[in-house]
Write a structure and sequence with these properties.
The chain is of the alpha/beta class and about 475 residues long. About 30% of the residues lie in helices and about 15% in strands. A 4-stranded parallel beta sheet has the order 5-4-6-7. Strands 9-10-11-12 form a 4-stranded mixed beta sheet, sandwiched between helices. Strands 14-13-15-16 form a 4-stranded parallel beta sheet, sandwiched between helices. Helix 9 links the parallel strand 9 and strand 10. Helix 2 runs parallel beside helix 9, helix 5 crosses helix 6 and helix 8 packs across helix 9. It is flat, with a radius of gyration of 23 Å.
Length: about 475
């Protein structure tokens, strides 16, 4: 087990700066997750992501605030001091907070802290389901009269200069037993194994620290990155494509994924179907070999696309309205392609998309949902009629080549060959360098307007 650290040192570190003009001493204080991740990344010679926040001593050393923080789990970094100072700076009085279900149990405690110490007169807890940062609900916050939104548990998919009110993302970095992670890797993988190390955003610090500790025995260990995500971060719809068949960047022998569930892991498995995947669960303290029905998934998706190509002409474009999950720009693009082909269509707005809800809608032959691509992938044949992702809709409309067509006609749903013959299915929904079907808010106008390339997906990413 790692040695415990002082509560203050766990959350905050940094040297005091010189006195400011108002006579108050100020400390430049990065959150523990930011500081450790940045230090580990810089040491590895990778991209530096070090964001400093000037938090005054009146906040850092507020005895009442520090005592209130002790009601929260010691290994969860909610960045309370930074949040309090940011709200004070903004003069926010009506604050909305948004949590994924796994963190919602702490919402009332944090709300009380913000009301007592940040000067907020009201804190609204947004109770709708929050699957990811794509669900950041600035629209509901504004409708409630909020003047600031704090979104917990996810990275910044929707930039703060896009949201309709000031927004702060708190990743909620979770400290885990790094000694056990390192020992588990050493026990199961021979020294020199080429490993790719990734996980969810909550464990980004653990991933960087694990890399530092493992570098001696695993010098080629790589933390992949796909912009705009953090090094090693994987979403359920966005994952890096790892090197394959490149002598300058040898393929990894295995993927080690740090997470307590499979949803995000499955995205990088779909994008890299040849790569053996292992999941380290920091709560169960267990390493498991994970598998995915690559051929089965691709077979179902291909059948749905071919049914859409050859079926009835009536289409429905469904815009997901759960936070920012649906992108109106993608809807406009799809409407243009359908109109150019003379295909009749309707546009629907729906907060949560499910097989039962779509089954109740008549006079539609094909649905294309602009919300979460995993709805179509995971539920597959649960939908009575083809329910495509934007990528699949563009295949059905002849706008981009299909993965099986790029494989030279060798369909992934055939029985010949092994898993190594399966062409990667693009998981690039929020990648800055993804295809034209992609929903990234980080693309500039020139990149967003470029035509689809011959290979849908992302460039292989290097180390962190």
């Amino acid at each position: 087990m790692t040695e415990p650290v002082e509560d203050g040192a766990r959350r905050f570190s940094g040297a005091a700066a010189s006195s400011s003009s108002d006579g108050n001493h100020r400390a430049i204080v990065p959150s523990s997750s930011t500081a450790l991740s940045a230090a580990a990344s810089a040491a590895a010679g990778g991209v530096k992501r070090f964001v400093r926040q000037q938090v005054p001593d009146s906040v850092l050393h507020n005895d009442g605030l520090n005592e209130a923080i002790r009601a929260l789990p010691a290994n969860y970094n909610f960045e309370i001091h930074k949040t309090v100072w940011r709200l004070q700076q903004a003069g926010a009085k009506q604050v909305a907070v948004q949590f994924p279900e796994g963190l919602l149990m702490y919402a009332c405690v944090i709300s009380d802290i913000l009301e007592r110490f940040a000067g907020a007169t009201h804190v609204f807890i947004l109770g709708d389901v929050t699957f990811g940062a794509c669900c950041v609900d600035d629209f509901s916050a504004v409708a409630l009269g909020a003047d600031f939104l704090v979104h917990y548990g996810h990275s910044c998919l929707v930039p703060v200069d896009v949201t309709t009110l000031p927004c702060l993302y708190v990743f909620v970095d979770i400290a885990i037993d790094i000694d056990h992670l390192v020992a588990t890797v050493a026990l199961n993988f021979p020294a020199g194994t080429r490993l790719a190390l990734a996980g969810t955003i909550q464990f980004s610090t653990a991933i960087q620290l694990g890399r530092q500790r493992l570098a001696g025995d695993y010098p080629s260990l790589d933390i992949p990155k796909v912009k705009p995500l953090s090094p090693g971060e994987v979403l359920g719809c966005t994952a890096p494509v790892l090197p394959k068949g490149n002598p300058d960047a040898p393929s990894p022998d295995a993927l080690l994924f740090v997470a307590d569930g499979r949803f995000h892991l499955e995205a990088i498995m779909i994008a890299n179907p040849e790569l053996p995947a292992f999941r380290y669960d920091p709560y169960a303290r267990a390493l498991t070999r994970e598998r995915y029905d690559q051929r089965g998934m691709r077979s179902v998706r291909r059948r749905m696309i071919e049914r859409a190509r050859n079926g009835g002409p009536r289409w429905a474009v469904v815009l997901g309205t759960l936070g920012r999950q649906g992108n109106p720009h993608i809807v406009t693009m799809l409407q243009g392609h359908l109109s150019a082909r003379g295909l009749p269509f309707v546009t629907l707005l729906m907060s949560e998309i499910s097989p039962s809800r779509l089954a109740a809608i008549e006079d539609v032959d094909v649905f294309v949902q602009v919300a979460c691509p995993r709805l179509s992938i995971d539920w597959g044949e649960g939908f009575a009629r083809p329910t495509l992702t934007p990528y699949e809709a563009l295949i059905a409309l002849g706008e981009v080549p299909a993965w099986w067509e790029e494989a030279g006609g060798r369909g992934a749903d055939t029985n010949d060959g092994d898993a190594g013959s399966i062409e990667p299915y693009p998981m690039d929904y929020y990648s800055k360098d993804g295809g034209v079907w992609n929903s990234s808010w980080h693309k500039n106008a020139a990149k967003a307007a470029r035509p689809a390339g011959p290979r849908p997906g992302m460039r292989a990413a290097g180390g962190a």
